[in-house]
Amino acid sequence: MTAFFALTTSLLWGLADFGGGLLTRRAPALTVVVVSQGIAAAVLGVIVVATGGWSEAGPRLWFAFAAGLVGPVALFSFYKALALGPMGVVSPLATLSVAIPVGVGLFLGERPGLVQVAGIAVAVTGVVLAGGPQLRGAPVQRRAILLTLVAAGGFATVFALITEASTNVTGLFLALFVQRLTNVAGGGAALWLSVRRGSPALPEGGFAWSTLPALGFVGLADVAANGTYSVAAQHGPVTVAAVLASLYPVVTALAARGFLSERLRAVQAAGAGLALVGTLLLATG
User: Fold this and answer.
1) Chain centroid to CA 225: how far?
2) CA distance 120 to 131
3) 111-115, 202-206, 228-232, 261-265 — which is least confidently predicted?
4) What value does the mean pLDDT take over residues 221-229?
5) Are 51 and 173 in contact (CB under 8 A)?
6) How buried is residue 51: exposed, middle or buried, by Cβ count under 10 Å (0-12/13-18/19+)?
7) d(CA 122, CA 253)
8) Can you list the alpha helix ranges (DSSP code H) found in the chain?
9) Would you say 53 and 173 are in contact if contact means Cβ atoms under 8 Å apart?
10) d(CA 173, CA 52)
């Protein structure tokens, strides 16, 4: 069950990241975050009412609230990084987010074997190779890497918080709803401040209503991924759930290659491959 839900998380996050990155090339990142998360919050609200989720309200919702504060920062940073691209480098770099959940698992008493330790070393080496070549050259590429690292830390924090926010499926729906409401409120406040400082909230020509289905997909895929990760982490070792869920860069990179025809330098492709091999070693060790 842990492997199934964690791999489902990777698929959903990978598709959401690809869609979010594309949308951010057409509209401001904060607008993408607020609209996509707003759609997800509306759908979750209906689900909570239908399932009687309000009965699960309790102190654990503070974890969901905290995850909601961190989430918009991580999403905004990641979508901006994906917009700067290339996706095939930015997305594998985000595998650094696995560090915090694995650390939490170790703190709770889980102990990795030698294969898993080797996996950590291989993954870190891969991350360095995948991002290192972009450190030289245009400043915008350095900015993309820094944004990705911020996003990785934010995603990892959300991983840890959302796992603690509920103990059953009904409570999970409520926790995800609270998280999304907080996402929208925090992202909306940031968008308002951004507009006050002169940044546009909409692209030239106004809001493209044709992108609404894509925005809805991104928001719903992201919230579904949070849910499947929570289930995976609650039914198995956090270290295994975290590393399998971190395979989502494979989906994003394949989507970028298939739809955008992105090509990576040899060292970048090797680094991305090593990062993913390291993740597999962690999962199977």
Assistant:
1) 9
2) 17
3) 261-265
4) 91
5) yes
6) middle
7) 19
8) 2-24, 29-51, 61-84, 87-93, 99-107, 114-131, 139-163, 169-196, 212-234, 238-245, 248-260, 266-284
9) yes
10) 10
